[in-house]
Amino acid sequence: MPSAEPVRRAALVLHGRRDTVADAVPRVRELAEREGVELVEAGDDAVLDADIALVLGGDGTMLRTLGRFLGTGIPVAGVNFGAVGFLTSIPRNQMEDGLRRLLRGEYEVLDLPTLEAASGEERARAVNDVVAASSTLGRMVHLAWSVGGEDLGELPCDGLICATPSGSTAYNLSNGGPVLVWGLEALAITFIAPHSLHARPLVVPRGKDVVVENRTPNVVVTALADGLPFAELRQGDSITVRLAEERSLLATLPERTFFRRYRETFTT
Fold first, then answer.
1. Of 65, 119, 211, 222, which one has the greatest count of Cβ atoms within 10 A?
2. Does 49 have pLDDT greater than 90?
3. What is the pLDDT of residue 46?
4. Handedness of CA 49, 61, 259, 177 (dihedral sign)
5. How large a percentage of the chain has pLDDT more than 70?
6. Neighbours of 196 (CB within 10 A)
7. pLDDT at residue 45 above 60?
8. Rg (CA), the chain
9. What stretches of the chain show up as alpha helix (H) in DSSP?
10. Beta bridge pairs of residue 78
11. Distance of alpha carbon 213 from its chain centroid, rounded?
């Protein structure tokens, strides 16, 4: 049974390398026309009136699109044209059937936590993660950190990651951090190359601010939101990260659950 209203207008977002999806675009347009759906290019202002955003790309394109549509109420669904595609809902070889079901309203919408970060006057939001990392390759930094106002000490490392549940399977996981199941209201803190045998990842619930301070003389720490730098922390500067009120809206076919994606991606 359909789980949403049939789509009448859809925004189409393409992989950054257009040649990767060049053959697929005419097929998507033909399908939309058959289903009576108006397809709007992502660069058009009319996308803000779309019922859904359709992504032809991988996790990077999904991430950018989820960030772009934050606060609009428009869910994002993807066909995997990338390497992993954990955030996408439809395998490339099932594109026509999967998109047909989406356009007919056979999808569910998952609302996932995002992050907000502040350092001085600089502000940023992130769908996946906020990272504080040494700006000099090969130079470790000393980071002091606290959670919910409680001091947790200082650690020499290459940096620190704060990841959402949707971002926990990205940079966080590659650094040994925990996978957070979608539905949790929490963020994961994971150190990058910690110079300690006792550094352990930590899962933090909503309502607990994470504060990270650079205590390194002569080495700047760069703060990044979803991979994009937004602030530089000199010695004594800090960044505050928390779960935001805004949610990213991920549209998915009903059978494409978190655990099915996890099994297919990480256990096979």
1. 65
2. no
3. 53
4. negative
5. 96
6. 11
7. no
8. 20
9. 18-21, 24-34, 59-68, 95-103, 171-174, 258-266
10. 55
11. 24
Helix (H) or strand (E) holding 155: strand 150-157
pLDDT tens-place string over residues 93-114: 999 999 999 999 999 999 999 9
**Cα-based distances in Å from 96 to 4, 27, 28, 32, 91:** 19, 8, 7, 10, 10
For the whole model, what pTM was predicted? 0.91
C-alpha–C-alpha distance, residues 158 and 128, integer Å: 19
On the 0-12 / 13-18 / 19+ scale of CB atoms within 10 A, 188 is: buried
The catalytic residues are: 59
Decide if 238 contacts 119 (C-beta within 8 A): yes
Residue 227: both structure tokens together: 């991979």
3-state secondary structure 112-132: EEEEEEEECCEEEEECCEEEE
> Any idea what DSSP says for residue 90?
B
What pLDDT is recorded for position 1?
Answer: 45
Quickly tell me which residue has 């595609």 as its tokens.
85
Question: Do β-strands 52-57 and 122-126 pair in parallel, antiparallel, or remain unpaired?
Answer: unpaired
The identity of residue 43, as a single letter, is G
